[in-house]
Amino acid sequence: MNSEGKVLVVDDEPNIAEVVRLYLEHSNYEPILLPRGQEVLRTIVEERPSLVLLDIMLPDISGYELCEMIRKMDAPFHQTPIIFLTAKGESIDKLRGFNLGVDDYLVKPFDPNELIARIKAVLRRTVQVPTEVSASQNSSSRKLLEIGNIVIDLDQYRVTVGGKRIDLTPKEIELLHFLTSHPSRVFTREDLLGYVWNFDFTGGTRTVDAHVKNLRKKLGQHDTWNIQTLWGIGYSFEVVQHV
């Protein structure tokens, strides 16, 4: 049976690492265990894991710092999906993680079966667009969108504006792609949290606001399109029609 891919597990608690290893192997993944953060970047380059399962409270470096360092790696390593598996369960901790570009967040103690389900969901999202988007576009074009001077390639997780590549996190690209796939349609923050993040958590809508803010800052202002805020409702991608 072929492996579903490698999963890098960074956790200094041996009992938890062992449980995760067993469930990963049972689900046909290849676990790579590290008790410290210092070898993470090298291991990502050498082993090319499909996903990183990362604790926040490590003995040598914070998981937040590691997440930020991974997102600053050269392509394609900076797009490696990351799930935080941690005892830090406050909303502010989750918000900080999502703002750094983490793909999912699971709090200890956890159900190992839920962990495997979340890993599968994150990996599906890295190669697929939401079902609603897929149904509205043909299979050859649904992952490549071009509107005005912006081109979004979800296959390569690449965004260019006026031919210049824009450095976005994977989640920012997914959010932008989703909005541009439905021009002029208004989505509430809860809608976007469900479609793009595939789950909800207390305080979660604030991470949607933070990602939209980051997108606007990185993309800049343009005459032919913009991400519109509808106060008290949510966001939409608007294409400007010039007369």
UniProtKB/TrEMBL annotation:
It comes from the Bacteria. Keywords: DNA-binding, Phosphoprotein, Transcription, Transcription regulation, Two-component regulatory system. PROSITE patterns: OMPR_PHOB, RESPONSE_REGULATORY. Residues 6-123 form the Response regulatory domain. The modification 4-aspartylphosphate is found at D55. Residues 142-239 form the OmpR/PhoB-type domain. InterPro entries: CheY-like_superfamily, OmpR/PhoB-type_DNA-bd, Sig_transdc_resp-reg_C-effctor, Sig_transdc_resp-reg_receiver, WalR-like, WH-like_DNA-bd_sf. CDD domains: REC_OmpR, trans_reg_C. The keyword Transcription applies. Residues 142-239 bind DNA. This is Response regulator transcription factor. It comes from Paenibacillus violae. The lineage of its organism: Bacteria, Bacillati, Bacillota, Bacilli, Bacillales.
